[in-house]
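#help-structures

NK: newbie question. if I give both the sequence and a SMILES, will the prediction place the ligand too? trying with 2-acetamido-2-deoxy-beta-D-glucopyranose
OV: yes, paste both and it writes out the complex. here, I ran yours:
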Amino acid sequence: MASISDHYAEADQAARAVDTAKDITLYGGRKAPLPLNVIIIGCGLGGLATAYALGKAGHRVRIIESAPKIGEVGAGIQVTPNLSRILIRWGLGEQLKNIAVLPEAIALRRYCTGELVGWTRWGVTMEEMYNSPYYHIHRADFHRLLLDLASTVSTLKLNSTVVKVNPSPPHPSVTLSTGEVLSADLIIGCDGVKSLVRDLVVGEPTKAVATGDAAYRAIIPTSEMMKDPALRELVESPEMTGWMGPGRHIMGYCIRAKREYNLVMAHPDDGSVESWTAEGSADKMRADFEGWEPRITKLLSMVPSTLKWKLMDRQPLTTWLHHEGRVVLLGDSCHPMLPYRAQGAAMAVEDAAVLGNLLSRLSHPAELTPLLRGYEVLRYHRTAETQKSSRLNQHIFHLPDGPAQQERDDSMRRAMETELARVSKQLHYRPWTTEEMTTALWDSVAEKQRQTSDFTGEGNSNQWADMRKNREQFGYDADLVSEKWWVENGERVCRQAVANSVSNVSARM
Ligand SMILES: Cc1cc2nc3c(=O)[nH]c(=O)nc-3n(C[C@H](O)[C@H](O)[C@H](O)COP(=O)(O)OP(=O)(O)OC[C@H]3O[C@@H](n4cnc5c(N)ncnc54)[C@H](O)[C@@H]3O)c2cc1C
Ligand SMILES: *[C@@H]1O[C@H](CO)[C@@H](O)[C@H](O)[C@H]1NC(C)=O
Ligand SMILES: *[C@@H]1O[C@H](CO)[C@@H](O)[C@H](O)[C@H]1NC(C)=O
Ligand SMILES: *[C@@H]1O[C@H](CO)[C@@H](O)[C@H](O)[C@H]1NC(C)=O
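OV: that's the protein plus ligand as structure tokens.
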């Protein structure tokens, strides 16, 4: 059985991002006339994406990370079309093709019988409609790609834990556990779900809310699965499969060019810790899913070890920006979410893309606060909505057997029948224009879409069959919304801020 690190070496080969990244220009070649010294706390996916986006915008960026070395922790991550759109723009198109898997569909099944109740075509449909693919990828591979990108425009200081942040101008700074003090013009807290920066920004301790769920994560080599005809099809036609049961669900999909099968198993929490790296007992895991369909039993018998992860949630924060304007939050530090819409990574990278785009315009110190507020305005609502729809899936997936569950399954079946009919008639969706994906009123888009199919799936229990939600989610273009904000608001607000600061200075003189 090949170890994960064997695969890692291969993935490295397939994905040399450094060379590609050198030639990429972002923001139409625009670089900030006023470059800042930026410190990013945390070298997760969010920190790396931010380093790249701000470095490309002309800023001088340092990343500070507490881990002594870059590990390869984690399992599957979903790269949805709104995220792949950014990554392709960043020059990673070829590398993604090599290391990622394109799921052909999402299949939702009953836990005990395996009966298919929901099915939505992904693969070609995603590219057809949103002009960007949906990928499944290993977090470690993704982390490596972003590290390659970030290293072209920033520096990384490992083995350095930030213990204190001084948010006050003129010299904001961070203090490391060694006592070393590093100052910067702008400090960005990309320090994850247990963020230290968050409480400082919000001004009071923020509480994590237990969701009542925990999740096991495990990876199975697909070479093992290929030996069993019943499991073989999970690899050969790679769908994302969700098994829904009372209080529990399992999501499974292929990663690493189909060499590994990733499992996330949500179940009632019985006292785990909020951690990405805590070991769980594989035997307890099997006991948790006793009585599930034979394929699950077989899959779980192949799991030698598992990671256990307590699922915490937080209400949207009151602010992401410290009131003195020099410390801002990004990624899981400001909007952690349940993984049930698989959006943690997508949201963090989108945050980074918006922040980089806006700060590529910085030409005067007085513009910094309005630009950071613009970032917050653009991202706050969307991430709060995503937190909500992730929570909705917790409810939908975990219904106990009974009338509500039957209603859910009937709703999903209706969407599936339409979808299967469409696929068998080889009807293709009409590609949406950028305008239709991002700005046009939904009603007019839906009207045109009905030329292909009457069914738009609005409100369906299978949230991936809902074309309106899909449009909002997958059509999002981080650069486009940033440019639009600038034209509609940003330029005016920034000009005003500069004028105020100039007149205040002259008034004082
Ligand atoms: C080890 C790990 C495994 C994960 N596995 C999965 C997975 O399998 N599937 C999935 O969907 N998502 C996973 N995630 C979550 C996913 O990566 C995030 O939801 C998403 O990428 C947004 O991340 P982020 O960059 O905001 O925060 P994170 O990815 O959590 O990164 C935060 C970083 O900040 C560092 N840090 C924290 N505090 C300090 C400090 N005081 N000083 C210096 N550095 C600090 C941490 O060491 C960490 O590297 C994982 C995250 C981690 C950290
Ligand atoms: C990390 O830093 C500590 C001091 O803070 C040091 O003792 C240790 O050797 C360092 N580890 C590595 C891997 O550099
Ligand atoms: C990106 O896609 C996900 C779904 O995959 C969605 O939840 C999210 O809202 C989308 N975009 C933005 C900006 O939030
Ligand atoms: C400048 O003065 C105006 C009006 O007196 C005030 O509203 C504004 O906040 C001041 N701006 C700065 C940057 O001090």
